[in-house]
């Protein structure tokens, strides 16, 4: 069995603000195997970005990883010192940021930004690093790489910038890649290209990839497994085909139902999930989705937090209703 | 391309200069009092001879319409003739006085600018690095306190505390003995403290702004050490807006020089302004005001230009 | 199941917050801001009740006690003409507050009107306005104000004479009143561009923002857009500008009085009190320190209030 590149167990990240404690990530557990692509889905504010920043240990004050362990290649990074963690950022785990324009230093040449980590982590000399940088840019599909090294981020188009981001992320050959909404800021045709690039690179390098997105369609196409998050917690997790063909959690169902399909009849109203996501400071004691859920049971669902239970082969759901349904089917 | 930008800016300054000079001129006109009467009275030893009076009015062409006098003034000014300081003894030419006063103030101002930058900018960076801690509050609070003290209060306080009580600095030698004399220390320091709050706050804000940018987080995500992140990614981006504040500092320094130079009896530009305005000397006041505006406009222009040079995103002339 | 869009009971999503409530709370958290506010209130009260609080008439001269040190008779000593320093300081507070209020009020009013007009009308009016504002702001403001004061003094004097002749209004003969009028005039003329420029740029930038376009798109009339959407956004910056204008006005008035072109003796102003004592800095430092420190504390208080207001009203400027 392939060794897991990443194992997250019970991760709990909180922000201690003046207005209260924000439970951004609560009891998150999942794994990513070598070469596996895992989708992390959920709406804005559900904790996906915080989770990925927690893996990198880049949670800004007033946030803190309060509990849990994050095993990167078997090593728990939560208790690591900052210096030790720095050595892992880049060579072991790297991140592709959402907005490439914002994530690149506007006053520093692209080449310099790529060469920097190569020199620091891989100890390359300037010339060797430069050559490697050209190779990387070439590999991600940027033509005339050697001239483009001397350009600045604003001189690249959106898609090209994203490719530069990808090159940067891969430069030190990480085993785990975190792609935070890599295609959200791009238009559709470019989205396709970038996704294909990521999939191709994953196959080539054998890195594990966590694809963070709110676009369910993208996940369906590219990911082996999917983690559905809501209000900082995992609500459903399993193989993509399992989760998407037999969604067990009402939220997952709602998410899938509200995606647009080409064949849908034009006359039907667009399905939505009523209500609004909860304030993460003021969470209810039970299931956070209960009040928006049309199957919920007043007493059970709102008072007691459901835990993840198995509803199939490596398919887990955190929902009382789903659980009782599954139990019912067993009998 | 850069040249075209410079030319365009200079061209844009022209209408502004017209407005500036007309404001100064109109004010001068308005408050002239009767210049001819004044001169005649002086010459006549207290008595006014009417024929002399009309003669002088004729000579100085004081009866021409305002527009004509204005354009004549502009014409003269462009040729370097800013009139005479009628109220001062000897009635020297204004340009001559300026030529004597400006170099002194220039040295004083540049020295003070160095003080402001060398003290204010690092403090601002420190405040940003330790934001919301005691260090931050102390720095910003301290700068606010110092800048709340007006120049004409800070100078005497400094004199009393540093010279009389603590005897840190040598006795205050009023007057100008050159920028490198120890007597210049106190005026330079006091003048430099006036803009300190603006510089500290602006630097702090600029550094914080940069620190919150994605690319700083991305740099950390690549495993770069914090000092490297600050030096290579933060500072260069944070320094750009600070150049803007340096332009504004010029204005503050000029403004404050009228008090500092007066109190320390340094015969510079500010002292000249004080003499001219307090003495009601119209020609001199107009000249001084116009030149001060010119200096401030020039420093703003220089700031814009340097911004263009340093920021690769700014494409001048576009 | 999910097609049913009936309003289901939602767990309370976010606590209802208002901009002003938020701002007030944030302001109250700032120690410096609250400190400044208290000092400001004390100053206001002092200004209002000055004549009652003063032990002596601030104009009364006691020639047996020139430049006296603080004593039981005169808790802060006397000045060079034997006037009680404490009383003069109190009246100086009145001067400072009065000038600050009038100046802040007029410059804000003029600035709001001209700034928004310029932004709204555009065209040659706006261009002319920009030129005038830029031109005025290119002068060192105290220098310009001082020049205006000196230039207009004779004329104002003549007008006051004429008014007195016509109406017998006693105040027109009081030179201190004239001083006040002149100070109001020149600081007002010099101060309005600051606020006008701010208002203009705010209105311009908000006009372009999408939510205004959205309002237009649903057919909201101009005045509605202006009062409901434009003004509240501009108001925040204007309030902050007003509080710093307050401190600046006090500073400017003192500076003008120091130069001898503002409130002149026997009128009481911290500025002219310092001016008359500078030459004796070695022998009677208390004559400089007392007014100087009070002036600095007053300006400091308003600076603190302004900073705290800025943090409270401009959420983007707030960093956690």
Could you characterize what this model shows?
The complex is a heterotrimer of chains A (331), B (318) and C (320). In chain A, 36% of the residues lie in helices and 24% in strands. With 331 residues, chain A is α/β, with parallel strands linked by helices. Chain A is globular. By secondary structure, chain B is mainly alpha-helical. Chain B has helices at 2-30, 35-43, 50-59, 66-78, 94-129, 134-148, 151-165, 185-193, 196-211, 214-221, 226-263, 269-278, 282-310. The longest helix of chain B has 38 residues, at 226-263. The model of chain B has no long low-confidence stretch (mean pLDDT 80). With 320 residues, chain C is mainly α. Chains A and B meet through helix 2 and helix 4 of A and helix 10 and helix 11 of B.
> Radius of gyration of chain C from the CA trace?
25 Å
Query: N-to-C SSE series of chain C?
Result: HHHHHHHHHH
Distance between the termini of chain A: 32 Å
Strand order of the largest sheet of chain A: 6-7-8-3-9-10-12-11
So what's the overall shape of chain C? globular
Mean pLDDT of chain A: 85
| Total of helices of chain C | 10
Number of helices of chain A: 13
Number of strands of chain C: 0
Residue ranges of chain A: pLDDT <50 for 5 or more in a row? none
Largest interface: B-C, 52 and 52 residues
Describe the biggest sheet of chain C? none
The mean pLDDT of chain C is: 80
Q: How many β-strand runs of chain A?
A: 12
Summing up helix and strand content along with how strands pair, one would put the structural category of chain C as: mainly alpha
Order of helices and strands of chain A: EEEHEEHEHHHHHEHEHEEHHHEEH
Task: Tell me which oligomeric state these chains represent.
Answer: heterotrimer
Q: Per DSSP, what share of the residues of chain C sits in E-state strands of 2 or more residues? A: under 5%
Spans where pLDDT lies below 50 across 5 or more residues of chain C = 1-16
Q: What gap, in angstroms, lies between the N and C termini of chain C?
A: 42 Å
Q: How would a crystallographer describe the biggest sheet of chain A?
A: 8 strands, mixed
